[in-house]
Structure formats: C-alpha cells, structure tokens
Amino acid sequence: MAEFTTSTAPADVVRRQYLASAAGDLEALRATLAPDVEWTEMAGFPLAGTYRTPEGVTANVMEKLGHDWDSWAAHDDTYVVDGENVVVLARYTATNKATGKPIDIRVAHHFVVRGGLIVRFEQFVDTALVREAMAG
Predict the structure, then answer these.
(1) Is residue 57 within 8 Å of 66, Cβ to Cβ?
(2) What is the CA radius of gyration of the chain?
(3) Positive or negative CA dihedral for 114, 36, 110, 91?
(4) DSSP secondary structure string for all residues of 39-54
(5) pTM here?
(6) Whole-number Cα distances in Å, 107 to 42, 50, 55, 77, 104
(7) CB 62 within 8 A of CB 73
(8) From 85's CA, which of 18, 101, 103, 107 has a CA 20 to 30 Å away?
(9) 3 Cβ neighbours under 8 A, 6+ residues apart
C-alpha cells in the first residue's frame, strides 16, 4: 500500500487537501490540485464562483476566508468514494471578524480526482447561515 503522503487514491488526495487547509499550508494544498482545476463555491456563498489554477483557488478562496474569518476550518468526517468521485460530509466552523458571530454549519463537498490530483470541486452549503453570521 502506498504511503499516505504520496498515495494517488482519490480519498487520500482529498484528505491531504483538508489537512493542508487545516494547517494553513497553502503550498501543500496547491500540490493536491490539478493545473486546470475547476473549484466551485456555491451560488449565494460569499465567495461564489468557479476558480481555476491552484494559485487562483488559494488566492480567491482560502486567503479571502482567512481575511474575513477567524479560525476558519472544514472538518471532514464522512467520505463516500465511487471511482474518481469523492463526496465528503463535513462541517465549517469559524468566527466572522466583522461581527464576532460564530458558525457551525454542515456542508457537503464533491471532489473529482484524476491522476492523483483534484480536477474538480463543488461545494454544497446552507449559504443563508453563512450570510447571517456576516450580517451586523
């Protein structure tokens, strides 16, 4: 069995992405993303849109979340794997810097992993709860 750090198994690649995100290691996070990655944040989410390239994803998603939220974290708990598809049930926790309001929200993430890299990501989240925490 391949070492976790080098495994190309879809669930292992996705797990490395969560660990890198939790550690604030954007370089390690970018290493899990394909050069032509398509990363989609759900319509209604503050960062809604589709971002491309590993640098584009971290600049437009992770860095902006860090700017607006304290202790933003995605806690992955359940993985459902079907070939190159990995669906993760998770939870976001954070505190909005502007309002001081915390969130603790269930989310689902759909990843497509090919050749040991994430080629697509789609977020599913209750965007109203996120926006509520951002409202003064």
Answers:
(1) no
(2) 14
(3) positive
(4) EEEPTTSTT-EEEESH
(5) 0.95
(6) 11, 18, 24, 11, 10
(7) no
(8) 103
(9) none
Give 1-40 as a 3 state SS string: CCCCCCCCCHHHHHHHHHHHHHHCCHHHHHCCEEEEEEEE
Tokens of 11: 């669930």
Q: Which residue in 40, 43, 68, 63 sits closest to 127, CA to CA? A: 43
Is the CB of residue 47 less than 8 Å from the CB of residue 64?
yes
Maximal CA-CA distance, the chain: 51
Q: Do 81 and 66 meet the contact criterion of CB atoms below 8 Å apart?
A: no
Between 53 and 2, the more confident residue is: 53
